[in-house]
UniProtKB/TrEMBL annotation:
<dbReference type="Pfam" id="PF14574">
    <property type="entry name" value="RACo_C_ter"/>
</dbReference>
<dbReference type="Pfam" id="PF17650">
    <property type="entry name" value="RACo_linker"/>
</dbReference>
<dbReference type="InterPro" id="IPR041414">
    <property type="entry name" value="Raco-like_middle"/>
</dbReference>
<dbReference type="InterPro" id="IPR036010">
    <property type="entry name" value="2Fe-2S_ferredoxin-like_sf"/>
</dbReference>
<dbReference type="InterPro" id="IPR001041">
    <property type="entry name" value="2Fe-2S_ferredoxin-type"/>
</dbReference>
<dbReference type="InterPro" id="IPR042259">
    <property type="entry name" value="Raco-like_middle_sf"/>
</dbReference>
<dbReference type="Pfam" id="PF00111">
    <property type="entry name" value="Fer2"/>
</dbReference>
<dbReference type="InterPro" id="IPR012675">
    <property type="entry name" value="Beta-grasp_dom_sf"/>
</dbReference>
<dbReference type="Pfam" id="PF17651">
    <property type="entry name" value="Raco_middle"/>
</dbReference>
<protein>
    <submittedName>
        <fullName>DUF4445 domain-containing protein</fullName>
    </submittedName>
</protein>
<dbReference type="InterPro" id="IPR052911">
    <property type="entry name" value="Corrinoid_activation_enz"/>
</dbReference>
<dbReference type="InterPro" id="IPR040506">
    <property type="entry name" value="RACo_linker"/>
</dbReference>
<feature type="domain" description="2Fe-2S ferredoxin-type">
    <location>
        <begin position="4"/>
        <end position="108"/>
    </location>
</feature>
<dbReference type="GO" id="GO:0051536">
    <property type="term" value="F:iron-sulfur cluster binding"/>
</dbReference>
<dbReference type="InterPro" id="IPR027980">
    <property type="entry name" value="RACo_C"/>
</dbReference>
Length: 653
C-alpha cells in the first residue's frame, strides 16, 4: 500500500506521507508556507488549515471525511479556550490519515501578501527582520552547569534551528526572572540582520506572547513627519499619524536649515534634538492611538532626504550645503534605535535607514525606487518626487538614472504672493473661461465650485485664504490657455487681454482671482512675480528630467509617475501645459501617492527588500545637475510655457 497523498493549496505542493504525520510536518517537508510560533505545541494557533472533502479529479483522489485524525486533547483545549473557526484545524495537531487536500488560508502563511495600497495590484510579501519564537528551555542542572542564556540558545537551535544568538546587557538583566516566571517556557523576539551575523534577542516574555510585534515606518520630511505603525505579523497598518517637523522654526526649507547650522555653533545639535523629540512624541501618540504598549514597537525604518538623514543621525549637514555635497555615509544603516534617542519604544528596538543615492538624492528617493521599481520596468519611466528639491528617477530594465533639481518651494505655495500650504480655505482647483476670462475655483474643504449655489455657505468657516501648490500650477496653466500670459510668461494688460481682472501692479500686471476685501478677507491675485517663481521651479524640474533623458540618450519617455503627496494632488494635464514634465500620453501620467512611505513599509515588512534596495541604489547612475553645463541650457529653454523648443505633441491632441 502507498502512503496517503497530501496536496496543499494554494501552492499546489504535494507529497506522500505516512499515516500519522502531522500536517505541519508535511507542510515543512514540502516547503509549504505554514506559520508557527509555538513550534507545534498547539498554543499559538498560527498553523490553522482548512481540509476539503469530496472528489478531486485534478489530483486523482477522493478525500474522505476522516482524512485527518480526530481532534486530540490539545486541539480540543484550544477550541474550548479560544474557539477555532468552523472547518479550521490546527495543522500541528491534526495528522494525515488518508488522501487529503489542505488549504492554507492567507493568515496562516508566513510570507503572506499584504496589499500595499488600494490603487496598485502589487503586494508586500511578509518577511520581517524581527519574529517571535516560542521555546521550552531546559532547567539548570547542578551536574552540568550552564548559563540560562546558553540553555536558551541551545533550545533555539534544537527547536528552531537558529544558530547563534546574542543579547545585550539590558536583555540579560531580565532573562533569569522571565525564564522562571514562564516556567522555562518563553517567547523571544529575534532580530536577524540582512547582512548576517548572530540573531539578536530583542525581547523576551514569559509563556506565549500574544500581543503582537510592531514596527514603525517613518517618512521624515522637512515639513511633516509621517509614521505608519505596522503589525509585523500581518503587515497591517494599525495606525498612521503625522506631525509637523519642529525643525521648521530653524528654517522653512532644507537650505535654510543647513545655513542655520553654519551660522550657529551647535545649531545642528539643536535641530537633531528637536526632530528626535518629535519622533518620540509621534511614537507615543501612534501607540496610544492603536492602543498598544509602545514597548511592542521593536523596529523602525526611516526614509528621508539627505539633510534630514544627517540631522536625524546627529551629523552636521554643513557639507550638504556646498559642492561637492559629500554625505557622511550614503550606505544604509542598521543600528539600535536608542542610538537615535528613540526612547519611547522598546529599549532594544532596531532602526533601519535606507541608503542615500547621492548628496542631493536621499533615502526617500531610494524608497520611491523600492516601491515603484523603475529597474524592473519594460517601458521607460520617469518618476518625479516634487518637493523643495525635486528628485527624479529615469529608467527601465536596462538601467536607472537619478538626479535632483533645485525647484525651490514655489510648488508648495511658498514665495507666491497669495500662496499657502495645502489647508482648508486654500484654492486647489482653478478654471478660467477662455471666452470671458473669468475664473472659477474650488477650495480645500468644499466640493463646490465658486460659481455654484451654496459655495459661500460651504466655505463660511474658513473663507478663501490663499492658493496652495496645486492651485498655483493650475492657475498659471489656465492663464496660459486663456491667453492671459504669453509664451514667455508675461501677463498682459487689460487692453491686451480684454479683462479688467488683469490690473497694473508696479510695472507689471496681476490677475485677480478672488477679492474678499469687502468682508475683511484677502485679495487673491497671481502676480508677475508668482509666474516667474513658478517658471523657475518648473524649468528646474524639466531641465532635470531632460538631463536624465540626455544621459539615457532618448528624447521621449513612455510614462511619467508623480510621487509624493503633492504629485497626488496636481492635475497632470495642467502640469504638462506648464511644461513641468516632458511630453507623454496623458493617460500615461499617473500619481503614485506616497511612494516613499510605501517604500519604508516594504523595507519594514520584508528583510529581502533591504538587501534589494541596497543593490539597486549601488547600480543607479547618479547625475549631478550642479556640474552639468547642459543643465543651464535646458533650464533656460524650459523657461517658456510650455517650452521654447521641445515639442509637446500630446498636448495638441
Ligand atoms: Fe502553534 Fe500549531 S504551531 S498551534
Amino acid at each position: 500500500t502507498t502512503d496517503p497523498l497530501v496536496v496543499f493549496t494554494p501552492s499546489g505542493k504535494r507529497g506522500r506521507f505516512p499515516v500519522g504525520t502531522p500536517v505541519l510536518t508535511a507542510a515543512r517537508q514540502l516547503g509549504v508556507d505554514l506559520d508557527s510560533v509555538c513550534g507545534g505545541r498547539g498554543i499559538c494557533s498560527k498553523c490553522q488549515i482548512t481540509p476539503s472533502h469530496g472528489e478531486f479529479p485534478k489530483h486523482g483522489i477522493t478525500v474522505r471525511e476522516d482524512a485527518l485524525s480526530d481532534w486530540n486533547a490539545v486541539e480540543q483545549r484550544y477550541d474550548d479556550k479560544r474557539g477555532l473557526k468552523p472547518g479550521r484545524r490546527l495543522g500541528c495537531q491534526a495528522t494525515v490519515q488518508g488522501d487529503v487536500v489542505i488549504d492554507v488560508p492567507p493568515e496562516s502563511q508566513v510570507h503572506r501578501q499584504v496589499v500595499r495600497k488600494a490603487a496598485t495590484a502589487r503586494a508586500i510579501t511578509m518577511d520581517p527582520a524581527t519574529r517571535l519564537y516560542f521555546v521550552e528551555v531546559d532547567e539548570p542542572d547542578m551536574h552540568s552547569p550552564t548559563g540560562d542564556l546558553e540553555r536558551l540558545a541551545r533550545a533555539l537551535k534544537d527547536q528552531w534551528d537558529i544558530d547563534a544568538v546574542t543579547a545585550d546587557l539590558s536583555l540579560l538583566a531580565k532573562l533569569q526572572p522571565v525564564l522562571r516566571k514562564g516556567k522555562w517556557q518563553v517567547t523571544v523576539a529575534l532580530y536577524r540582520d540582512h547582512h548576517g551575523g548572530a540573531a539578536r534577542i530583542v525581547e523576551i516574555w514569559p509563556g506565549l506572547h500574544e500581543s503582537g510585534l510592531f514596527g514603525l515606518a517613518i517618512d521624515l520630511g522637512s515639513t511633516t513627519i509621517a509614521g505608519h505603525l505596522t503589525d509585523l505579523d500581518t503587515g497591517v497598518v494599525v495606525a498612521s499619524s503625522g506631525l509637523m517637523n519642529p525643525q521648521i522654526r530653524f528654517g522653512e526649507d532644507l537650505m535654510s536649515r543647513v545655513s542655520y547650522s553654519m551660522m550657529n555653533p551647535g545649531g545642528d545639535a539643536e535641530m537633531t534634538a528637536a526632530v528626535r523629540g518629535a519622533l518620540n512624541d509621534l511614537a507615543a501618540s501612534i501607540a496610544a492611538e492603536a492602543d498598544i504598549d509602545p514597548a511592542l514597537i521593536v523596529e523602525t525604518v526611516f526614509v528621508c532626504n539627505p539633510v534630514m538623514h544627517h540631522l536625524l543621525l546627529g551629523f552636521d549637514p554643513v557639507e550638504l550645503g556646498q559642492a561637492p555635497f559629500a554625505l557622511a555615509t550614503s550606505e544604509s544603516l542598521s543600528l539600535p534605535a536608542r542610538d537615535l534617542g528613540l526612547d519611547a519604544i522598546n529599549p532594544r528596538a532596531r532602526t533601519y535607514i535606507l541608503p542615500c543615492i547621492a548628496g542631493h538624492v536621499g533615502a526617500d528617493c531610494a524608497a520611491v525606487a523600492l516601491s515603484e521599481e523603475p529597474g524592473k520596468s519594460d517601458d521607460l519611466v520617469l518618476i518625479v518626487d516634487v518637493g523643495t528639491n525635486a528628485e527624479l528617477l529615469l529608467g527601465d530594465k536596462s538601467r536607472v538614472l537619478a538626479c535632483s533639481s533645485p525647484t525651490g518651494p514655489a510648488f508648495e505655495g511658498a514665495q507666491i504672493s497669495s500662496g499657502q500650504r495645502a489647508a482648508p480655505g486654500a484654492i486647489e482647483r482653478i478654471e478660467i473661461d477662455p471666452a470671458t476670462r473669468t475664473p472659477r475655483f474650488r477650495v480645500i474643504g468644499s466640493e463646490l465650485w465658486s460659481d455654484e449655489p451654496g459655495f459661500d455657505d460651504a466655505i463660511a468657516t474658513t473663507g478663501v485664504t490663499g492658493i496652495c501648490g496645486s492651485g498655483i500650477i493650475e492657475a498659471v496653466a489656465e492663464m496660459r490657455m486663456a491667453g492671459l500670459l504669453d509664451e514667455s510668461g508675461l501677463i498682459g494688460s487689460a487692453e491686451q487681454t480684454g479683462t479688467w481682472r488683469c490690473r497694473p501692479e508696479g510695472r507689471t500686471h496681476a490677475y485677480l482671482i478672488h477679492d474678499a476685501t469687502e468682508t475683511g478677507g484677502p485679495r487673491i491675485t497671481v502676480t508677475q512675480g508668482d509666474i516667474r517663481a513658478i517658471q523657475l521651479a518648473k524649468s528646474a524640474l524639466y531641465a532635470g528630467a531632460r538631463l536624465l533623458m540626455d544621459n539615457m540618450n532618448v528624447d521621449r519617455v513612455d510614462r511619467v509617475v508623480l510621487a509624493g503627496a503633492f504629485g497626488a494632488h496636481i492635475s497632470t494635464r495642467h502640469a504638462m501645459v506648464l511644461g513641468m514634465i516632458p511630453d507623454a500620453p496623458l493617460d500615461k501620467v499617473t500619481s503614485a501617492g506616497n511612494a516613499a512611505g510605501t517604500g519604508a513599509r516594504i523595507a519594514l515588512c520584508n528583510i529581502g527588500a533591504r538587501a534589494e534596495i541596497e543593490r539597486v541604489v549601488r547600480d543607479i547612475t547618479k547625475v549631478e545637475t550642479a556640474i552639468e553645463p547642459k543643465f543651464q541650457d535646458h533650464f533656460v529653454a524650459a523657461n517658456a510655457i510650455p517650452h521654447k523648443t521641445d515639442p509637446f505633441p500630446e498636448l495638441a491632441k
